[in-house]
Amino acid sequence: EVQLVESGGVVVQPGGSLRLSCAASGFTFDDYTMHWVRQAPGKGLEWVSLISWEGGTRYYADSVKGRFTISRDNSKNSLYLQMNSLRTEDTALYYCAKEVAGTLGYWGQGTLVTVSS
Amino acid sequence: EIVLTQSPGTLSLSPGERATLSCRASQSVTSSFLAWFQQKPGQAPRLLIYGASSRATGLPDRFSGSGSGTDFTLTISRLEPEDFAVYYCQQYGSSPHSFGQGTKLEIK
Fold it and tell me: What pLDDT, in 10s, does the model give residues A81-92?
């Protein structure tokens, strides 16, 4: 069974940094592209970033480009999102997702990031 | 960036009725790389449809997707009580992989 468990969400001040993690199990992690998606409280979904199976291809939403960095450690079956220069508008539930047929086939339950002074 | 516009914003229907949800793209979606997701309160989204018309594993056949280019549709042929939720379309043919703003399907 595919399991994705996010962690690292906390309350952080504007301008601060945070690293989110996603622990994957139940599948061969290094075969799959992985994604981060976020959802602000009471709002819709926003795709954030993706990383290819070997880490060579990374894409970002314009809203996070230059501030967030996606990475992975295939030896640890883990996905990461380094978030710098955080803004209040980055407040959201952050999901990691496993790609299936090019899109978001499996999702974790999310980790909440709150950016507030 | 491809902007996806979903309509209507809210759809009020009764169980047993047919639901038609629309997703329009600001430019053509590459190779019909268009997906639909369902999200219920307090839950993560669930993949329903990918490639515009392919059903995800285990999805009941009352759900169907259609369309190409810039116009896509999710149809639920006969609504069951568990189908009332928020539905999102997403294009994944080009980066960024944008979502529509969602359609809330509510019980009338």
Answer: 999 999 999 999
